[in-house]
Amino acid sequence: MSIRRYVSSTKSLTGEPVMVSPGRFGYIRIFEGRVSMSLSAQQKQFFAEQGYLVVENAVSSAQLAALREQFEGWVQESRSHQAPYGETIDHRPRFDVEPGHSADKPTLRRVNAPTDISDAYYEVMRNSTMTDCVAELIGPNMKFHHSKINSKLPGAATEVKWHQDFPFTPHSNDDLVTALLMVDEVTVENGPLQVLPGSHRGEIYDLWHDGIFTGAVADSVALDCIDNAVTCTGKAGSVCLMHTRLLHGSSPNLSTNPRTLFIAVYSAEDAIPCSPNPVPSIYQGEIVRGERTNHIRSREYDIPLPQLPTTASFFDQQAVSRDS
Ligand SMILES: O=C(O)CCC(=O)C(=O)O
């Protein structure tokens, strides 16, 4: 499959960005010939305080349709496989299926680095309102780190145990945002993301327990999260922007509707990775907004290095703690 690279241009079709109207969700503008949106001061403040922000209409309807069509094709393709398959640049399977996956009842749960094999996913990572919004939080100079799709097809048992992303992807500073784009509508029933507001300003929790990298926080921390969790729902095309240190998790899909998230992780350009990328991509490190400064900005913290996954996805790492 051919990959069309987005060529950044300083000349927009319509000239300079045009502010059209300050709306409930920020400012609508026309930029590079597409409708884009700026975050309002209130939205930025909400993100700074709470560590997350849900923004509607983060992709155009054409972009959303292309994402959905591509993913549906991958689900159909998965019917002819019995186990994780495909290959990423680190030679792990690209497509991960739940135990019990079958042609009749496909349970495709993860696509690693979809940007590397799909124009639709690359385009949204590179050139969407979602990208613009992230740049307003950690820009102006910003680069891409990795991407994946987490899917919970109807009845899927897949859950995500409570964790922070930063201990999986430590950098010299923590200006990283995980953008979780809702490819399907996300409801309280279909396994929505749950977050602990404000937790990005607290401790960075250890994901190692008794010498095993479980990819999850200790049960005592998780219990506090469950008691105070906020559920992030939204219509298809909405994005949840999440600070890399925010505690989050999600439960199984109990509904008859799919829950597909396209997850793209970005960092400030001067945040330098301190461990290998767990989901390597041919585009990792690509500057998506602003420019390269070749500076390192650092902040002090002390955490154990993560363990890299050896199988298709971190669901297997988290399963260790569930089964032990
Ligand atoms: O798929 C989800 O519900 C959450 C994803 C997540 O936490 C992650 O990939 O780090």
Number of contiguous helices: 6
Structural class: alpha+beta
CATH class: Mainly Beta
CATH architecture designation? Sandwich
* Biggest beta sheet attributes: 8 strands, antiparallel
Number of strands: 17
| Quaternary structure of the protein | single chain
The termini sit apart by: 41 Å
Number of domains: 1
**Percent of residues in beta strands?**
25-35%
Mind telling me the CATH superfamily name? q2cbj1_9rhob like domain
Please state the overall shape, judged from the principal axes of the Cα atoms: globular
- Are any ligands bound, and if so which? 2-oxoglutaric acid
CATH topology name, in short, is Jelly Rolls
Stretches where pLDDT is under 50 for at least 5 consecutive residues are: 1-25
